Amino acid sequence: MLEACLTQGAGLHALTAQPASRVVAMASHGDRPSELPLLCSLCTTWTDLGYSVLVLDATVAESDRSPGLQQLMADPTPTNHTGAGGPYQASWPIVPAALGLEQLCLGAQEVDGGGSRLQPLGRLFRNYEIVLVYASAQHLALYLPDSGMEPLLAVSTKGLSVLSAYQSLKQLLKIGRLQPTIVAVVDESDQNSLASAASVCKSLQECAMAFLAHPVTPLPVCVPSLHGQPLDDMHRLALRLLESAFSVGQDNPASSHQRNDNHFARSH
């Protein structure tokens, strides 16, 4: 009888356990005009699927006027939950995180596995199911080596995007030993964008094979215009990124699987 009670108690505890947050990384390489619309569209897609989302913007440093991750790590109280625009007003919070992410990751060098350094995020942001870390490729490679994460790396037809994307790919592969998910951003308002994106993908593939001996297969993704409805491309990308996300906090496979089923049901 005691064994049965223990088993039942363990089952009830599992049902009431705090769900894990999932961390997704996006690498920045200076192409913000393409990266930011993609980031916003991803967050919109996740929220439409019913997920609660928070963005840690590690391209912006915290300050007294714009507190963020560093301040939350020192004093994790609700009054410190402010982003670049003050108290959270948007559909998803955007939190400055350059200093805090460096402190969090480089201050835990002894921890095995780069992704383990992100575990404190599960306590700080337990109310958010998805935490998107937006940081330079160099910092992701240095902070999260061998973590198994697959940072999103976007390349566009604008300017020198393909060159900076290649440099970021090299940093992620060689320094961080991270396999990124590469997407070619397609502008739905430009009829020639798809052909241009194909050309950019070919250039990136050739460079990666010639100089890194690494085959890559960029995915063309059509990003909707501002305030536009998420497209099928975005839904597929959003769900793919969740498959490779790093879990922080307490969770169990059964509850995670059940939550995904519920979100899929709500999306239809």
Description:
- 45% of the residues lie in helices and 17% in strands.
- α6 (137-143) packs parallel to α7 and α7 (161-174) runs parallel beside α8 (193-212).
- The strands form two sheets. Strands 1, 2, 5, 6, 7, 8, 9 and 10 form an eight-stranded mixed β-sheet that branches. A two-stranded antiparallel ribbon has the order 3-4.
- The chain has helices at 2-16, 32-48, 69-74, 98-106, 120-124, 137-143, 161-174, 193-212, 232-243, 253-267, and strands at 21-28, 53-57, 82-83, 86-87, 94-96, 130-136, 152-155, 181-187, 219-223, 246-248.
- It has a single domain, classed as Rossmann fold (3-Layer(aba) Sandwich).
- It is of the alpha/beta class and 268 residues long.
- The radius of gyration is 19 Å and the shape is globular.
- The level-1 CATH class: Alpha Beta
Number of strands: 10
Helical amount among residues, as a percent range? 40-55%
Based on secondary structure, the structural category is alpha/beta
Mean pLDDT over the residues: 78
- What is the terminal separation in angstroms? 44 Å
Q: Which architecture would the CATH scheme give at its second level? A: 3-Layer(aba) Sandwich
- Which outline best applies? globular
Run of helices and strands: HEHEHEEEHHEHEHEHEHEH
Number of helices in the DSSP assignment: 10
Strand content: 15-25%
What would CATH call the homologous superfamily?
A: P-loop containing nucleotide triphosphate hydrolases
Radius of gyration over C-alpha positions, nearest whole angstrom: 19 Å
Biggest sheet, in brief?
A: 8 strands, mixed
